[in-house]
Amino acid sequence: MSTAPRSLHRLITVLGAALLMASCSLLPQKHPIDKDKLEAAIDADMGGANTCVVLLDAKTGASLYQYGSPQECMTPLPPCGTFEVPLALIGLDSGVITPQTVTKWDQTPQPVKAWETDADVTKAFHDDIQWWWGDLASTIGHDPLSDALHRFDYGDKSADGPAKSFWMGLPNGGALDITTDQQARFFKRFYAGQLGLEPATTQVVQQLLVREVRDDSRTGRATFSAAEGACPSNADGSNTVGWAAGRLETKDHDVIFAASVNAANAPPGVEIRDKLRDIFASGGLWPSAG
């Protein structure tokens, strides 16, 4: 008796299980986002004509919510301090640094006293030590950086300008720009492990971004991860862009976010990051403090 029907049945069973597992991994958010509540919270804390907030499903990349006009969310802006994420990824993946590598401060006076120190990547990220990131970019070099930006599909992919500051806007000689929508989509690929990097590299940088973990008796564990930054956004330096981008993970939601405020009086990235955390709590995406 032929075994073909039994083999075919087994193949169909295996394929069916694989498809079921794939569909489960792409399940939408467990609870829909209350867009009206979220919009009211953004309006109250940091909204306006110069603000864009983009939320994506971390698993599927589907758009969940956008605050701000399409024009605002597609305006090219320098990435400022958020560029420390791709810089860290490139440096670690290329072997230029390891998580334990300590770069020595060269004794040059710094605008922030806390920057006058030796640092590894963790300290440099958490204290936003700008000379450290400039040194890393210079060590990696223009061509490897340009190649990586093209692989990452990062913004306009330009590594042109001063090696130590090309991500910090035109007044600092930089040509690199990224829109808020592109920023969110880069972070989605980063968290999904879709940048063609070693998983260990991605995990190190993801851990750097963790800002707060809350354990809530009702909603369980919630993790808020973010990178932030601010720098001049136009040629004469009269406007500043403040950024925050990252991931929000709770029992009910797994969301990638990117937010920008581009204005003469834009708040610093740290303030945008903290405002977003409060906004997410008001919008029901994040457990309230206490």
Lay out the secondary structure:
Elements: H1 4-25, H2 35-45, E1 51-57, E2 63-67, H3 70-73, H4 84-94, H5 121-126, H6 130-140, H7 142-152, H8 180-191, H9 199-208, E3 210-216, E4 220-232, E5 240-249, E6 254-263, H10 269-282
Antiparallel strand pairs: 1-2, 1-6, 3-4, 4-5, 5-6
Helix pairs in contact: 2-10, 4-6
Please characterize this protein's 3D structure.
With 290 residues, the protein is an alpha+beta fold. The chain has one domain (29-282): DD-peptidase/beta-lactamase superfamily (Beta-lactamase, 3-Layer(aba) Sandwich). Helices cover 39% and strands 18% of the residues. It contains ten helices and six strands; from the N terminus they run H-H-E-E-H-H-H-H-H-H-H-E-E-E-E-H. The chain has a six-stranded antiparallel β-sheet, sandwiched between helices. The longest helix is centred in the first third of the chain and has 22 residues, at 4-25. The protein is globular. The model is unreliable at 1-26 (pLDDT under 50).
Binned strand content: 15-25%
CATH topology: Beta-lactamase
Question: Order of strands in the sheet with the most strands?
Answer: 2-1-6-5-4-3
Distance between the termini: 69 Å
Number of strands: 6
CATH class categorisation: Alpha Beta
SS field, number of helical segments: 10
Q: Please give the share of residues in helix.
A: 25-40%
Low-pLDDT sequence parts: 1-26
Question: Which sheet architecture does the biggest sheet show?
Answer: 6 strands, antiparallel
Gross geometry: globular
Q: Which structural class fits the helix and strand makeup?
A: alpha+beta
- Indicate the radius of gyration in whole angstroms: 21 Å
- How many structural units, i.e. domains? 1
| Mean of all residue-level pLDDT scores | 90
CATH architecture field: 3-Layer(aba) Sandwich
Order of helical and strand elements? HHEEHHHHHHHEEEEH
CATH-defined superfamily:
DD-peptidase/beta-lactamase superfamily
